[in-house]
TrEMBL record:
The keyword Iron applies. PROSITE patterns: FE2OG_OXY. Pfam families: 2OG-FeII_Oxy, DIOX_N. InterPro entries: DIOX_N, IPNS-like_FE2OG_OXY, IPNS-like_sf, Iron_ascorbate_oxido_reductase, Oxoglu/Fe-dep_dioxygenase_dom. It is an enzyme of class 1 (oxidoreductase). Its EC number is 1.14.11.13. Belongs to the iron/ascorbate-dependent oxidoreductase family. GA2OX subfamily. This is gibberellin 2beta-dioxygenase. GO terms for molecular function: gibberellin 2-beta-dioxygenase activity; metal ion binding.
Length: 323
């Protein structure tokens, strides 16, 4: 019988729907940005999953590797060094505690402002700017292809929000350390939570991880599908704000990260958000005809404020839905 350390007890998921029949696990949509045909699949991926994988993304490997190297060095440094950059209020180093409302996870992280010239720990200066600039360009390209494919008059309706000087975008580096006690506990069929289930409040999130597994997305039937890691690709997910701007056509995907136990997982995520004053509402060009808005009007500032007062697993868009 496995005996567990009470200290790690709080990091286990309470209940988890058993895995679905492996024969009906869908494939993760794959978008090859170097192939024009590929763009036809983008809209469908955003509608069906709110999640897809991107290859031939144009982000230089050297930017990715430099950032990963600095991240690994930082997380391996003494706690006293890391804590010089904490707590994350709202930016900085955090350990096991997520947000302000009592969420915990088997994770440590750096939350940074994605705006150029922001204040970063020494070794991250320049490195984060190069990476974020390049990833943001790719995110904008994807958002423009989406607008094109949806036949929206302005191909930059979404991308201009990220390009805006006032864009409220965030950058995060996560480290899921190994957990020695975990092996014993896995035998109980329980799962160690690195980052609990949630949707991202912003427009679009761009994730890159090392080759350690852990990311899972929630499928329509409520089961969890684990996403095979791929350090050479990016994973993109639709955020709540893009779901609202498309009046629910695109789905903000619920996801979580389980800690692997034996191998460190390092991920870096760019969260592309609009300026604080921006009204988040269904695009008028999508609303011709009979369609009604599914959401009350709100600004990104209002949504963000409410999001930061919520718990990770809360249905944050719920209170903005029209009844
Ligand atoms: C999820 C997406 C981003 O990582 C993040 C997260 C933020 C945080 O870590 O402080 C939140 C979470 C995220 C949503 C609900 C609130 C806020 C933790 C939390 C409990 C930086 C973001 O913008 O929202």
């Amino acid at each position: 019988v496995a005996v567990s350390n009470p200290l790690i007890e709080q990091f286990f998921v309470k209940q988890s729907k058993p895995n679905i029949n492996p024969l009906i696990i869908p494939d993760i949509p794959l978008i090859d940005l170097s192939k024009p045909e590929s763009k036809h699949h983008l809209v469908k991926a955003c509608q069906d999953f709110g999640f897809f994988k991107v290859v031939n993304h144009g982000v230089p490997l050297k930017f990715i590797n430099k950032l990963e190297t600095e991240a690994v060095k930082f997380f391996a440094s003494p706690v006293s060094n890391k804590e010089r950059f904490g707590p994350p209020d709202p930016f900085g180093y955090g350990n096991k505690s997520i947000g302000r409302n009592g969420d915990v996870g088997w994770v440590e992280y750096l939350l940074l402002n994605a705006k150029p010239e922001s204040d970063y720990p020494e070794n991250f200066r320049g490195v984060v700017n190069d990476y974020v600039t390049s990833v943001k360009t790719m995110a904008c390209e994807i958002l423009e292809i989406l607008a094109d494919e949806m036949k929206l008059q302005q191909r930059n309706v979404f991308s201009k929000l990220l390009m805006d000087e006032q864009s409220d975008s965030v950058f995060r580096v996560n480290h899921y350390p190994p957990c020695p006690e975990f092996q014993e506990n896995e035998r109980n069929g329980r799962k160690l939570v690195g980052f609990g289930e949630h949707t991202d409040p912003q427009i679009i999130s761009v994730l890159r991880s090392n080759n350690t597994s852990g990311l899972e997305i929630s499928l329509r039937d409520g089961s969890w599908m684990s996403v095979p890691p791929d350090s050479e690709s990016f994973f993109i997910n639709v955020g709540d704000s893009l779901q609202v701007m498309t009046n629910g056509r695109f789905k903000s995907v619920k996801h979580r990260v389980l800690a692997n136990g034996t191998k460190s997982r390092v991920s870096m995520i760019y969260f592309g958000g609009p300026p604080l004053s921006e009204k988040i509402a269904p695009l008028p060009s999508l609303m011709q005809g009979e369609e009604d808005s599914l959401y009350k009007e709100f600004t990104w500032f209002e949504y963000k404020k409410s999001a930061f007062n919520s718990r990770l697993s809360d249905n944050r868009l719920g209170s903005f839905e029209k009844v």
